[in-house]
């Protein structure tokens, strides 16, 4: 059992390292429509709980990350910039980890990003996420419309345009 967990962790480390992409370079992007799992809720570091089904009517940006993931941390300023640019466009942004809540809170405090950090109830692997960072975008009906593996330049014009196209 422990060996499998270490293999998954090792695979996440190996697959999670990539250079930031623009929209044209995001070859790992998929546009399948999948209904979110209702039993996977998140708890923000402020104590608030969220179910994806409760966010229907909003466009939802969820970035899966870990405190040890350098590409994850490298794209956070771009995510923060995109969140600021899109704040009046019906988007909610979450940075979700399955690590211990104390570790997430410590990271949030030390790094000082103005983002909503949250803990996943469950494991990221259970969501069929193979590498970190991975970002999943949901439309206003709660359908998953994009899944992008790897670091992205989220505040670039082409990525902002792509995010604005989500209904």
Number of domains: 1
**CATH-level-2 architecture:** 3-Layer(aba) Sandwich
Biggest sheet overview = 7 strands, mixed
Strand arrangement, major sheet? 2-1-5-4-3-6-7
Helix proportion of residues, in percent?
25-40%
Question: Any idea of the CATH topology?
Answer: Glutaredoxin
Task: Walk me through the structure.
32% of the residues are buried. This protein has a single domain, classed as Glutaredoxin. Residues 1-39 have low confidence and may be disordered. Strands 2-1-5-4-3-6-7 form a seven-stranded mixed beta sheet, with helices on one face. Strand 3, helix 2 (70-85) and strand 4 (91-97) form a beta-alpha-beta unit. It is built from four helices and seven strands, in the order H-E-E-E-H-E-H-E-E-E-H. By secondary structure, it is an alpha/beta fold.
TL;DR of this structure?
By secondary structure, the protein is α/β, with parallel strands linked by helices. The protein contains four helices and seven strands. Strands 2-1-5-4-3-6-7 form a seven-stranded mixed β-sheet, covered by helices on one side.
